[in-house]
TrEMBL record:
<feature type="transmembrane region" description="Helical">
    <location>
        <begin position="71"/>
        <end position="95"/>
    </location>
</feature>
<protein>
    <submittedName>
        <fullName>Uncharacterized protein</fullName>
    </submittedName>
</protein>
<feature type="transmembrane region" description="Helical">
    <location>
        <begin position="101"/>
        <end position="122"/>
    </location>
</feature>
<keyword id="KW-0472">Membrane</keyword>
<feature type="transmembrane region" description="Helical">
    <location>
        <begin position="7"/>
        <end position="25"/>
    </location>
</feature>
<feature type="transmembrane region" description="Helical">
    <location>
        <begin position="134"/>
        <end position="153"/>
    </location>
</feature>
<keyword id="KW-1133">Transmembrane helix</keyword>
<feature type="transmembrane region" description="Helical">
    <location>
        <begin position="31"/>
        <end position="50"/>
    </location>
</feature>
<keyword id="KW-0812">Transmembrane</keyword>
Amino acid sequence: MKMHINFKRLIWNIFVLLYSGLFFYNCLSPYKNWLFSYLYTMFLILWLCKEYYQKNLFFQPNYFPDEMHNYLLRGLFALFFYSSFVFGIITIVWWHNYQILNLPVFPIIGIVLLVYGIVLRERSFRMNKRDKQTISQFYFSIIIVIFSMALGYNSYFLLIYDIIVGLPLIYLQSQYYTKKFEMKHF
């Protein structure tokens, strides 16, 4: 099978990775215990670049046709996710009082959870069966990813934000796709 390389997306991803690496290094390095949060950020951006290159929406199952997606939930979750990223960075730079503890152990756990969430998500896509369990596994992986952000950025503000805003959004999306699946099997 011949592999097709999308050079526009590849060049864009290289630019984003290089720019992000430099930007977040300069942004985070002046602060105490910054290294693991920086590594977390770069792993997160690398994963998002991979998803962009493959034309995947990281927060929605890609085994449903585009016309079946709920664009309101899609937009709200995207807003939540990217604002979580900003809140995480802000916690390190300005909101020091919202840090869980200023220890490197939490960002390390965040990195491990991020990798686990990504692996679990990828595994749900590789399963041949499409059922409620697959949808649940997919959204469980997204829950792991959003909570990894709270730990990756050592932010209890982000932890509360995940619980109050993120979990209800994930629940609504999960219910939406479960109902869509029950109505029309794929």
